[in-house]
Design a protein that fits this description.
Layout lengths: L5 E6 L4 E8 L2 E9 L4 H16 L8 E7 L3 H18 L3 E5 H8 L7 E7 L2 E10 L2 E4 L4 E4 H4 L9 E4 L2 H4 L6 E2 L4 H10 L1 H4 L22
Parallel strand pairs: 1-4, 4-5, 6-10, 10-11
Antiparallel strand pairs: 1-2, 2-3, 6-7, 7-8, 7-9
Length: 218
C-alpha cells in the first residue's frame, strides 16, 4: 500500500455495476447496484453522482482501477472502455484488478483458498488462491470448465468462495458467497499499486478467459 493515493474504481464484471472513490486506502464513497444489461447506460450517471457525493476531481486522481476479469464479456468490455476514456482524458494510469482476487478480498475474514465464478450455461471459472501479508494472491491460473467436469476436482476440504454459483453447487459442498464490489477493486488496487499499475494502458484488454460470443446474465 502507498499513502496519499486517490483512486476511482470500477466494477462491471457481472450484473453488479459500481464506482468507488478510494483515498489513502479507505473508501470515502461508493455507488453500485445490480443493473443487468444497463452498465453502459448508467456508468456515466454513477460517475456524476459519485463526483457530487464525494467532491473528487478527475485530474487529482492517481489512477483508475477496474475489475479486469474473468466475468461477463460485455460487462468487462464496458468497464475497461469507460476506465480508458477517463484515464486518457487526464493522462492517468489504470490498475487492472483480477476479479477473482477482488472477490477473495471481499471475504478476507475467512482467508478462502479456492474461488468459483459462474460464466455461462454450466461453465464455471475457477482458481486457487493463496494469502500473502493478509492479501489474496493467485496460486494458479484461472480455468473455465463445464461444471460436470469440474465438480469432482473442487477441493471441498478448503475454504471456497463463489459468485452466482448457488444453483450449480446446489448443496454439494459449502461455499461462501462473495459479491463483486467496486470498493474491493479500489482497495486491492491501492494495496498492489506499484505491482499492478499500467502507466500506458493503450493495449490493455480484459481477461475474458472464456470464448467470445457467450451469453451472460449481465
Amino acid at each position: 500500500m502507498i499513502s496519499g493515493t486517490k483512486i476511482l474504481s470500477i466494477e462491471t464484471s457481472s450484473s453488479i455495476c459500481g464506482l468507488a472513490y478510494i483515498v489513502n486506502g479507505e473508501s470515502v464513497g461508493c455507488i453500485e447496484e445490480s443493473t443487468p444489461r444497463k452498465h453502459a447506460e448508467i456508468l456515466p450517471d454513477f460517475f456524476n453522482q459519485l463526483e457530487k457525493k464525494t467532491n473528487f476531481h478527475l485530474a487529482e486522481l492517481n489512477a483508475i482501477a477496474v475489475s479486469i476479469g474473468p466475468g461477463s464479456f460485455t460487462g468487462l468490455r464496458i468497464g475497461l472502455s469507460f476506465a480508458k476514456g477517463l484515464a486518457y482524458s487526464k493522462g492517468l494510469p489504470i490498475v487492472p484488478v483480477p476479479t477473482m482476487m477482488a472477490l477473495a478480498y471481499q471475504v478476507r475474514y475467512a482467508f478462502p483458498t479456492y474461488g468459483l465464478i459462474w460464466s455461462h450455461g454450466t461453465r464455471v471459472f475457477s482458481q486457487p488462491v493463496t494469502w500473502v501479508n493478509k492479501l489474496p494472491a493467485e496460486a494458479g491460473s484461472v480455468e473455465v470448465n463445464d461444471w460436470d467436469d469440474l465438480v469432482e476436482r473442487v477441493p471441498i476440504e478448503q475454504t471456497i468462495f463463489q459468485w452466482q454459483c448457488d444453483d450449480i453447487v446446489d448443496g454439494k459442498f459449502s461455499a461462501i458467497e462473495s459479491k463483486p464490489s467496486a470498493i474491493n477493486v479500489g482497495l486491492l488496487a491501492n494495496h498492489n499499486f506499484k505491482e499492478w499499475v499500467v502507466k500506458k494502458p493503450y493495449d490493455l484488454v480484459p481477461s475474458y478467459i472464456a470464448p467470445f460470443g457467450i451469453k451472460s446474465r449481465l
